[in-house]
Design a protein that fits this description.
eight-stranded parallel barrel; 40% helix; TIM Barrel; 252 residues; binds phosphoenolpyruvate; 10 helices; alpha/beta
């Protein structure tokens, strides 16, 4: 794992070629903050163009298929993403889990395919509001980690976990810093159980309504190694404010 904070923008189903200007501006900002790893995950249609347009930022995708090729109309494989210039892929986002019925086994298969294609993988986990209210948040997240993370020798070095409470995504609501720290400590313990010593090196991102105002506080919580950012990643101004918060004092 890099010990630089990792700030990743998930553009979801937003973005057209006109928005490449934002990506270029984000890239210039990333170049001014070498202490931060900056990633952008645009829709599939922009992966190749954006990968060609940037230098400092990493470009990734928001999903991939578990198979390398075949009769899967409308799907995109990890190998195709690598060929298009992607360096990472997000798998198991709660919107994929909820809207496309992806379970832990499917997420794990996608993560394994991503690694086989030479990509880094960001595996998303997170509890619903009902699960948190029932006191089951850590249990749910640990079960997702057990079922979704790829296994194998040397694998942990190319895996990042994103903890995204479902109820915080796109809602403007965020957990307390204490709750974020407690969950990230629980995830760290689980990563050590799964990967042994290598688990200590896996970066854990927080995601869910991160913005310029709350980034510094959330990034300061225990075991938070960066952020996965949705809405606030769509403009260079709002996204770079988060990158600067990760860069710390003195960055501009
Ligand atoms: C996300 O979808 O991964 C996300 C964190 O979205 P937002 O920042 O808009 O809550």
């Amino acid at each position: 794992m890099s010990n630089r904070p990792f700030i990743v923008g998930n553009w979801k189903m937003n973005g057209n070629r006109a928005m490449l200007a934002e990506a270029r501006a984000i890239d210039r900002g990333a170049a001014r903050c070498p202490g931060v790893r900056v990633g952008i995950a645009p829709p599939f249609t922009l992966v190749n163009t954006m990968a060609d347009a940037v230098q400092a930022a990493l470009i990734g995708a928001q999903d991939c298929h578990a198979e390398a090729s075949g009769a899967f109309t409308g799907d995109i494989s990890a190998a195709m993403l690598a060929d298009a210039g992607a360096q990472f892929v997000i798998v198991g986002h709660s919107e994929r889990r909820a809207l496309h019925g992806e379970n832990d086994a499917a997420v794990k298969a996608k993560a394994e395919a991503a690694l086989a294609a030479g990509l880094e993988v960001i595996v998303c986990v997170g509890e619903t509001e009902a699960e948190r209210d029932a006191g089951k948040a850590e249990k749910v997240v640990c079960k997702q980690l057990d079922g979704s993370l790829p296994q194998g020798e040397g694998v942990a070095a190319r895996v990042t976990v994103a903890y995204e409470p479902v109820w915080a995504i796109g809602t403007g609501r965020v957990p307390s810093v204490e709750d974020v720290g407690a969950m990230h400590r629980a995830i760290r313990a689980r990563l050590s159980a799964i990967y042994g010593e290598d688990g200590a090196g896996v970066q854990i991102l927080y995601g869910g309504s991160v913005n310029a105002k709350n980034a510094e506080e959330l990034l300061g919580a225990d075991e938070v190694g960066g952020a996965l950012v949705g809405g606030a990643s769509l403009t260079a101004d709002s996204f770079l404010a988060i990158v600067l918060a990760a860069a710390g004092p003195g960055a501009e």
